[in-house]
Amino acid sequence: MRIITFVTLVCVSLFTQAQIKVKVSGNIFNAPSETAILSKFQGQQITDLLTVKFQKDGTFEIKGEVPHPDYYVLRVGETNINLILKEGADIKVYGDGKNLDAFVNIVNSEESSNMYKFLQMSQAWQNKSDSATAVIKVNPDKAGEVTNIMRSEYQKFQGDQRSFIATNPNSPALIAVLSTIDIQNDFASYENVVNQLVASFGESPTIQSLQKNFEAIQQQRFANDKMAPGKEAPDFEELMVDQKTTMKLSDLRGKIVLLDFWASWCGPCRRENPHVVELYEKYKDKGFTVMSVSLDKSYDNWVAAIEKDNLSWPYHVSDLQQWSSKVGRLYGVSGIPFTVLIDQEGKIIKTKLRGAELTAELERLLGK
User: Fold this and answer.
1) How far apart are CA 110 and CA 158, in angstroms?
2) Are 328 and 261 in contact (CB under 8 A)?
3) How confident is the model over 191-208, as pLDDT tens digits?
4) Which of 167, 207, 319, 357 is exposed most, by the fewest CB atoms within 10 A?
5) Which domains does the chain have, with CATH numbers?
6) Chain centroid to CA 27: how far?
């Protein structure tokens, strides 16, 4: 049963905490083995902790101590059933031994039950994905058709994933979601789930290990991302509107600066300009200013747009090299509008702020 493997990926804990008393009982009729075993994963190895024999009618009762509050598995034959065990846990497990992959009823532990249900959904999606891959391998001409179907199925699964996170706030059950989140493309969601797990089950060595690993990933991302909040904004010197005078970003130290990449030919930029003007007029006397970096190529179009949009701040720069702009390349700009909000010390607060988000951030920093 592949859906149980998430525990092995995150649990590398040692049995160092005080033991807790637990009870796991229930009925597995048609049990595929003589024994029910309560076990613990450590890395890729499993340690069996408590073992009992099934009665003839399938009833069983495991009662004893386990090393600490954490994630465990009830092993029945080849099937592993994930359980969340805390001090005094009294969990009941019911199922048909011939069909444990499809149905298990977990009672007296809502978080274990919810975790099991999500793992079932996740396995169902994985089965569909595996089947689609097999179909394409045998019939490459169906790749387009199958891909379209699977795109829709994946969107549905993502909806189920988001719903599970929303309906299980601060629950240890959320650990089941982590393996389904692409940390590279959705780091914020992954971080959100990790934070909830730490808040809800921080005594778990598995969660402690997960937190430690996540913090290492955070540190690496921060080291690699020059636009990460808290980092110093890269300084530069560029030509102003007269194309003779230059200014540096660091000339504006002491002010909160919105570094705004735009161009006269950029429709979304021009539509956003009135809002930026409004914020500048509102906060300019409170230590806020704007420095606009144009990705224009035409000097005349650049200057005309400044005048027409009433961009009244004095800090406008450009080398008129469009996408080859030195400043644009320095900041990794691949699309505009692109903004960087910088604090009085020259450190990045946030990037890509526009509209209501920009307003809210300035209200937080400078008041309404």
Assistant:
1) 22
2) yes
3) 999 999 999 999 999 999
4) 167
5) 2-107 (2.60.40), 120-224 (no CATH), 237-366 (3.40.30.10)
6) 38
